[in-house]
Amino acid sequence: MTLRPNDLNAYWMPFTANRQFKANPRMIVGADGMYFKTSDGRDVLDGIAGLWCCNAGHNRPRIVEAIKKQVSELDYAPAFQMGHPKQFELASRLASMMPGDLNRVFFTNSGSESVETALKMALAYHRVRGEGHRTRLIGREKGYHGVNFGGMSVGGMPANRKMFGTLVAGVDHLRHTHGVEGNLFAKGQPENGAELADDLERLCQLHDPSTIAAVIVEPLAGSAGVILPPKGYLERLRKICDTHGILLIFDEVITGFGRLGTPFAVDKFGVEPDIVTTAKGLTNGVIPMGAVFVQDKIYEAFMEGPENMVEFFHGYTFSGNPMACAAALGTLDTYQEDGLLTRATDLSDYWQQAVHSLKGLPHVIDLRNMGFIAGIELEPYPGKPTKRAFEAFLKAYEMGLLIRTTGDTIALSPPLIIEKTHIDFAFETLATIIRNLE
Ligand SMILES: Cc1ncc(COP(=O)(O)O)c(C=O)c1O
Fold first, then answer.
1. CATH for 65-337?
2. Does residue 307 register a pLDDT over 80?
């Protein structure tokens, strides 16, 4: 193959319609604050914080400086049997932000890796406690937990699973909570559907609870189209897990770091799981990093046997990488100084009104919101699912707004620095687009 400058052929793009993109590329060449700069010189409002990750907006000085300083001081330290101070500083700081007993932190490099880590921790935890018969993992339909085998297996989005064989054995799924009667156009948490948590009891009856290690859910499901937990649902899941000795894992890769108007979904819903997975907003998306929070009891269960032995045979070359730690510390400083982790609460009425201003427009069959998240569900184009929403995405980009679509739902999750004028622009633009969709 002859390579040419700007040749688009070699790069196989992830989760992308490669042929469509390469025929008509959308290139980002810069970013600052709320905006991306495109290769054709336009400013595009970032309506999705990159990919739900640049929560403090782009080009934040504290983060940029932290990385520059770190790279000249210590570029890399071995992750295994060695440490460097920023790992410990960051873990302590993160633990102090998380409520309850979630005081131990394990570093990864992505949301997918955080999920794999959490699932392995759950299995191994039961095993070190002498309950190695707990091998089943329970996910939920429409769940998204990344793309590695464990996360894919507990995940419940058919397109992400169907190509990849039999996946991990011993996994089952709760029913999803989308489309419950009476919940359409609910503002914030919907009223109906808490009883869907009892589906876990059904699976306990089927498999026997003594075989189940953990249940993993997104407290608010993002990737499948912004699906909020019905009031009382998460509380009920927690209760059933407690009754049967099952670990509860919240996948907070999206909801972590201020997305819902509180630091974590754990704060928002007042339900404490045993394990929390995070990534994305941890470093403002600037350097890949994830963190898994576990309750003290889990960490402590591993701390037995000869002291010179590795207690948990798991980790990544880049776990707690110096640059990632520096970026995360700079990010936490930025969140704190600008009060970003609760900002979505301050503006929640304005956001909610803006989202629901789209009610009544053609094709809009549901609207969902919480914190700085919106789900705008469109009726699929007859016989061509996803077409209508994808057209909205292309049109929005043309009009200076970056959105994300999943199926026929448009998702918005802007940087938490968003101002009312940006919100106005985003929803006015969307209204125009939706009115003109085929
Ligand atoms: C809830 C959830 N878990 C896991 C992931 C996977 O994260 P990553 O793409 O960093 O591997 C995502 C990504 O969107 C997510 O939303």
1. 3.40.640.10
2. yes
